[in-house]
Amino acid sequence: MIALLRRDLLLALRAGGGFGLGLAFFLIVTVLVPFSVGPQSDLLTIIAPGVLWLGALLACLLSLDRLLALDFEDGTLDLLATAPLPLEAALSIKALSHWLTTGLPLVVASPVLGVMLNLAPGGFVWLVASLALGTPALSVIGTFGAALTVGIKRGGLLMSLLVLPLYVPTLIFGAEVARRGATGLEAGTPLTLLAGITLATIGLMPFASAAVLRMTLR
Amino acid sequence: MSGVSFEVAAGAALILRGPNGAGKTTLLRTIAGLQPPLSGHIAGAHETIAYAGHADGLKAMLSVRENLDFWAQVFGQNDIEPAIAAYQLQPLQDRLAGTLSAGQKRRLGLARLMVTGRPIWVLDEPTVSLDTDAVALFAAAVTDHLTANGSALIATHIDLGLDAGSLDLAQYRSAVDLRIGASDEAFL
Amino acid sequence: MSLWEYANPVKFLSLSARLQPFLWGAAALGIVVGLGWGFFGTPDDYRQGSTVKIIYLHVPAALMAINAWFMMLVASLIWLIRRHHVSALAAKAAAPVGISMTLIALITGAIWGQPMWGTWWAWDPRLTSFLILFLFYLGYIALWEAIEDPDTAADLTSVLCLVGSVFAVLSRYAVKFWNQGLHQGTSVPMATGGRTVSDVFFYPLVISMIGFGLLFLALVFYRTGTEIRLRRIRALIARSKRNL
């Protein structure tokens, strides 16, 4: 399992691996927001938590089609399916490496972008906390979407269509935490619910992803 | 396909022959456990089988050694030196797999079998893009594997010079065309 | 004789052919009587005026939008567990009907909401939930269309339907948490235990709901039959090619 994680991280870091693409996308989307809504800082303060969450979600989504497609094309998935490692574990590791290369950098970068969007001072802790708790769920759910569409030629757009509705609960609770935190309201309840969703998806989604992948590999 | 039945003993190999589309790949994938049989059954656990298909599962951005190391670790083995030696990959071991020629990639893909430590090799067209010398290396590796009480099931068109039985799949062409899926028969 | 015998495509087609005339007839009767009585035979509401009468379209459509997804869930489970082709095809056949019902519910809701709330659309929990349901239907149908092998398509869409159902319920609660909403309480007594509309409105509503339910059944039988015949033709073409 550690071998698979190390290989995926190594691949992401080497040329053409796509490490940092999600982060760059997050940066650009956030920078474009003031151009589209205007530079008034009080307006930006209001929308900052939501914009940052939406940007993080889209950045996660965009890097998903690389998650399994490359391994599918070069036959690695066939070989992994016959390896002693259960496919559920392999997919959990894949989701983890996706989170480490996409989700975690977003969490780290979000305060900087928060400053640029004039996020309220009290909101930074909650923004980082909500992203740290919520992005793993995005990676795990995204792995399911990637497994569903990996056998389909040009399945990227279809995958977005399938994955985005599944992201709704995570987005609602995550953005709610950031929003309530930024306006000084109590944010413990949505944070707990967000943690619940993340833990449940980490525990259950790999089984659905593996089942779907076995069907595709047939 | 229908009516195919065979058994491969430990220490023995079986060569599968048959025209394109006879169902060799389907049969081998089924045996490797990648797809369920439409009917019939396969004795022997999937956990004893090392499968090598048309694609080698190599990463272009990893070196030869890193590729082998990865698969060795996935299969719980440590020693990749015999595999490197058997396919004469020493001079290539630090090159990125993406810079190898097709035949060199194939050699690396076949070397992967040796690091799985599994007794049954299921190989689909292993000699594609190999030159004569590399085919000899491959035949030697298979012979060694058989001597060590392993067994092999190989679909190929060329003569490997192995002491092995062969089975022609052409005669088992079934009444059902697999391409439309046997399930569609239910609608007739 | 077991119910599962109708999982045989040929048996299903003959049953469907016998049932369909009654289903279409009863559905037409239910909808004509329900809507006719509802539109012309009931008094205007003292507060909502004649606008309220759109309820006879809105509520049955919304009900069937949810029930269609539920039926797809059951059919998907049957396919995954017992691998009956008719079940998978019935789920496939129900999806476009379900998405149409969802659209009808959304559009009639907007038409009803405009004079009542002064806006065509509000991010009310119920409206939002239906919008999310609409997205789920869209993804499900798109996945069916994208996969060539019919059995793989049936497998993958079934799992999507299962996972989607869980997330749809989750979204429903998430959306409730997110916004408390201005939608009026449910008009269907089963859900609340007490009736929130009076009898004059209630009976035509029930008849209309039954009519929509029967219409859904008739459409699903019809469309499943089409799908079965499509697969039959494919199998026949393949067989004749082999025999050449």
Question: What topology emerges from the helices and strands here?
Answer:
The complex is a heterotrimer of chains A (218), B (188) and C (244).
Chain A: H1 2-13, H2 21-37, H3 41-62, H4 65-73, H5 76-81, H6 87-116, H7 123-149, H8 156-182, H9 188-217
Helix pairs in contact in A: 1-6, 2-3, 2-6, 3-6, 3-7, 3-8, 6-7, 6-9, 7-8, 7-9, 8-9
Chain B: E1 13-17, H1 24-31, E2 49-52, H2 64-74, H3 81-86, H4 102-116, E3 120-124, H5 132-147, E4 151-155, E5 165-168
Parallel strand pairs in B: 1-4, 1-5, 2-3, 3-4
Helix pairs in contact in B: 2-4
Chain C: H1 9-40, H2 55-82, H3 85-117, H4 125-146, H5 150-178, H6 189-192, H7 199-243
Helix pairs in contact in C: 1-7, 2-3, 2-5, 2-7, 3-4, 3-5, 3-7, 4-5
Short description:
Chain B has 188 residues and is an alpha/beta fold.
Describe the structure.
Helices cover 83% and strands 0% of the residues of chain A. Chain A has 218 residues and is an all-alpha fold. In chain A, helix 1 packs across helix 6, helix 2 packs parallel to helix 6 and helix 3 runs antiparallel to helix 6. Chain B is 30% helix and 12% strand. Chain B is built from five helices and five strands, in the order βαβαααβαββ. In chain B, strands 2-3-4-1-5 form a five-stranded parallel β-sheet, sandwiched between helices. In chain B, helix 5 (132-147) links the parallel strand 3 (120-124) and strand 4. Chain C is built from seven helices and no strands. Chain C has helices spanning 9-40, 55-82, 85-117, 125-146, 150-178, 189-192, 199-243. The longest helix of chain C has 45 residues, at 199-243. In chain C, 41% of the residues are buried. The chains are: A mainly alpha (218), B alpha/beta (188), C mainly alpha (244). At the A-B interface, helix 1 and helix 5 of A face strand 2 and helix 2 of B.
Biggest β-sheet strands, sense, barrel of chain C: none
Name the helicity range of chain C.
over 70%
Count the beta strands of chain B.
5
Rg of chain B, alpha carbons: 17 Å
Rough shape of chain C?
A: globular
Would you tell me the overall average pLDDT of chain B?
A: 79
Supply the helix-strand structural class of chain B. alpha/beta
Beta-strand content bin of chain B: 5-15%
Query: Tell me, what's the shape of chain B?
Result: globular
Distance between the termini of chain B: 19 Å
Radius of gyration over C-alpha positions of chain C, nearest whole angstrom: 20 Å
